[in-house]
Amino acid sequence: MRRSIITMAAISAALLLASCGGSPGTEQPTDATTEATTDAASDEETSEEPAVRGEGDLVIWADAGKAPSVQEVADVYGEANGITVTVQTIVNVRSDFITANEAGNGPDMIVGAHDWLGQLVANGSVDPLVVSADQLSAYHEKAVTAATYDDQLYALPYGMESLVLYCNNEFAQGPFDTLDAAIAAGQEAVDAGEIDSALNLPVGTTGDAYHMQPLFTSAGGYIFGYENGTWDPTDLGVGTDGGIAAAEKIASLGEEGEGVLSTSIDGTNSIALFNEGKAACLISGPWALTDVRTALGDDGYTIQAIPGFEGMGPAEPFLGVNQFYVASNGANKTFAQDFITSTAAGGLNTPEAMGTLYEMSAQPPAMNEIADQAIASDPDMAAFLEAATAAQPMPAIPAMDAVWGPLGQAYSSVVGGADPAETMTTTGTAIEETIAAS
């Protein structure tokens, strides 16, 4: 590798950059979830014209958090192949790309979340990739699954993110075998008047379907049917018996139950209150690590894959994967295909390039060789990668857009005391109607 794997301090600094541009102490979802839940809103709020292609033999679009690391590896490829490479920083990458690609004035490549894939394929916006099975075996199996749609590889993965369980050693010394055990340890400190909460998980008044997913799945819920790497949008689990039972478990932890979950905890205060010593445990992702280390010190916390509830199923948070796509109408698709798939010097499909992307972004690496080096240098990265292995790729189908808002609101309602069966049944019906109408 051109550089050694970065130190703990450098990882902490890079994770702040990789946290979707959020400020310290602000709960940040994965890039995938940020796009899924805010893309439409940001498009409505901006009056700017959609972006168009800049100058260069190879033009790549990425958001502000990804652009610096992408530029670093792109420069190496450009120099090795005698071409100019331009990395444009774009605010609304997905929506602007679809528009520009259709008009023929878009980039050759984009960098973004895997759950864009269904929409991009449906719009004919991206081309398949040709990467051998032997080369793909160098990547985490679930990352490859996330880059695949209808049995066709459409992207090259490089970074993975999923939720983990952080616990403050002063109040809840982890790791724990079950989520119940973590909550019980924290509740002792709550009962003693030392802290306010046993577990911080963003709920808020509008809910948070992303952060609630590990609890929902452990208690028997599912969103869409999933088999052999394929999501079935006609099999919605929200209003089923399993979805209702899971909502009942979530409600039992709510404000009229054990009081573990609260609508007063949301994305603006979840991490901050944990770091202030007001909560025993926290469900969050790699983007929280910088602030947690700063607040609690290297030995003041534990990180682990989220355990399931006692006597119930495993917790399966969403897995978000960041990856590279080739535009279907790019002016120089040959360069784009070569850059992504090449194992020659300067190509993305190399340990050197993947190592640079990890060093600069500090997202858990998708390439196994880089992941092994990351684990050897940082035990926290081992926990993140274990969590990624336990996670389920976020549904990369257009129907998922109909789920985020309604399901999040349903969670907020049941945490606040609404009837779980009625809430989930009504929500499931509304989601199904939206999907059918789309």
Characterization of this structure:
- This protein is α/β, with parallel strands linked by helices and 438 residues long.
- The chain folds into two domains: 8-161 and 319-393, D-Maltodextrin-Binding Protein, domain 2 (3-Layer(aba) Sandwich); 163-317 and 397-437, D-Maltodextrin-Binding Protein, domain 2, CATH 3.40.190.10.
- Helix 1 (8-18) crosses helix 12.
- The chain has helices spanning 8-18, 31-45, 67-81, 93-103, 117-122, 133-136, 141-146, 179-191, 209-218, 241-252, 270-275, 289-296, 333-341, 351-361, 368-377, 379-390, 404-415, 420-437; strands spanning 58-62, 85-89, 109-113, 126-127, 148-149, 152-153, 155-162, 164-168, 197-200, 224-227, 230-236, 279-284, 301-304, 318-327, 392-393.
- The model is unreliable at 1-47 (pLDDT under 50).
- Strands 1, 2, 3, 4, 7, 14 and 15 form a seven-stranded mixed beta sheet that branches.
- Strand 1, helix 3 and strand 2 (85-89) form a beta-alpha-beta unit.
CATH topology of the largest domain: D-Maltodextrin-Binding Protein, domain 2
The CATH superfamily of the largest domain is identified as Periplasmic binding protein-like II
Low-confidence runs (pLDDT<50, min 5 residues)?
1-47
* Coarse shape: globular
Q: What is the C-alpha radius of gyration, as a whole number of Å?
A: 21 Å
The appropriate CATH architecture of the largest domain is 3-Layer(aba) Sandwich
Rounded mean pLDDT score: 89
